[in-house]
Amino acid sequence: MNLARVVCAAAVLTVLLVTSAHAQTGTVSGSVVDSAGVAVSGADVRIDGTTIHVLTNDAGQYTLPSVPAGARTVRVLQLGFKAASRAVTLAEGGTETVDFHLERRIIEIPGVETVVGSRAHHTAADELAVPVDVFPAEQIQHQGTTETSQVLQSLAPSVNFPHQSVTDATDIVRPFTLRGLSPDQTLVLVNGLRRHQTALVNTFAYGMPAGSSGVDLNAIPSAAIDHIEVLRDGAAAQYSSRPR
Questions:
Q1: Which of 68, 92, 212, 219 counts the most CB atoms within 10 A of its CB?
Q2: Rounded to an integer, what distance in angstroms lies between the CA atom of residue 27 and that of residue 54?
Q3: Under 8 Å between Cβ of 230 and 188
Q4: What are the chain's domains?
Q5: Geometric angle at alpha carbon 228, from 226 and 233, rounded to 5°
Q6: Model pTM?
Q7: What b-and-e string marks burial along 153-166, b requiring 16 or more CB atoms within 10 Å of the CB?
Q8: What does the pLDDT look like over 9-44, one tens digit per residue?
Q9: Rounded to an integer, what distance in angstroms lies between the CA atom of residue 217 and that of residue 197?
Q10: Number of other residues whose CB lies within 10 A of the CB of residue 197
Q11: Residue 27: which of 69, 87, 76, 57 has the closest Cα?
């Protein structure tokens, strides 16, 4: 009998403690929208000074339970929007509604500078630690041809653009080579993006491996080119092992 009374008293004490702790907290809920009234999903809504936070749902709504009663600051963070905060006084066991209207913010990303070979300023190309050729539009326009591959061949001694005959479709889509390597061993980037290879497989191409498939440089109009950069050896190492 005494044991039963002790267990019953412990149960009552536990209920009282849980009820008391619950009464010292409240609930904060609301919605988060942008300046146009469109719901912002995935926004991080948090209570400053605590570890309580939650993400808004697809409708931009949120609910923060078990928030300690008293004066609190509700803060909203979301990428692409300015952070917003609002002060709220939460009563014990009460519920407060806090809505937010976020303003969009443009995130400015600083430019990235790539230093190739050396940080010193050189005036002559032969002073560079790595082989880098830069050909501006003026040099490209002064060449006696409009074919981009042939222009590059006349400017860069390491580039070869062979004229072949009776080599199947290679007569039409002629590949170029860099330092005698296979056409598909040269990485071609246009505005920083990788240029796709042709669908032509070189089967009867003289002086280059059979089965290779390179980039058709002549598909790029020479008049639309601002400058051409040819990187070799150590200068091409920034693109890992893809180019040669």
A1: 212
A2: 12
A3: no
A4: 24-102 (2.60.40.10), 129-239 (2.170.130.10)
A5: 155
A6: 0.41
A7: bbbbeebbbbebee
A8: 344 444 444 444 445 899 999 999 999 999 999 999
A9: 10
A10: 16
A11: 69
